[in-house]
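Onboarding guide, step 5: your first structure request.
Type a short instruction followed by the sequence, for example:

Predict the 3D structure of this protein.
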Amino acid sequence: MSLLIVSLLVGMLVCYFVCGIPFGLLIARAKDIDVRSVGSGNIGTTNVGRAVGASAAGETLACDALKGFFSMMACRELVAALCFGGDFSMTRPQTSFGWVTALLYLACICGHVFSPYLRFHGGKGIAVGFGAGLGLAWPLALGLLAVFIAFAVPSRYVSAGSVAADISVPLWGLVLGFTPASIPPLVVVTCVVAWAHRENITKLLHGREQKFAFHHDGSRGQGPTDKKSDTGSGGGALS
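The system replies with structure tokens like these:
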């Protein structure tokens, strides 16, 4: 087995296990709230915001984005050091080895959506996808943010912005000149995140999605009895 493949596998495992850390759950638990039993039951930014408050949502967003960014950068450095004599530019997705970096990006998303610490349940991959996207290619991350804002802000449906940004991932790869071998992992990313948003998509199509609003800081979130009415709502989409 070549050094490149070994380095890639090690990097993907690091990305998977680091990005699987459920920061939203930990931050909400510090406020004595199990975010899995309130609102949409999701551990991501939006449900934390609805259930706990804006400050907790901000912390969750920052932690989820940063774990993706630092995982990508550290593992790209690892691959560059072991396989390319420290030449970081060889891990750019526009190079012939761009597929390696694209697979690291996929591992970040899978770690968050299928967290090994929560019996392979997790968030929906948007915040970590943005952070890891910054580590993959910062123009791609800014493109995703632009698409998200364009759809989420006018409608106040976070899920609409999330799904639109997700669909655009491989399209941005093509626009930015990623090599053909780098695109299939991005298509898989789109499929994984779309699967995580399947209930949101159904509710959007049937006009039953809820618009986003923060819960007041310092007050307790929705109780378990509210979960049924909010499951898969816009409150659980940014994660």
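Each response can be followed by summary notes, for example: Residues 3-236 form one domain.
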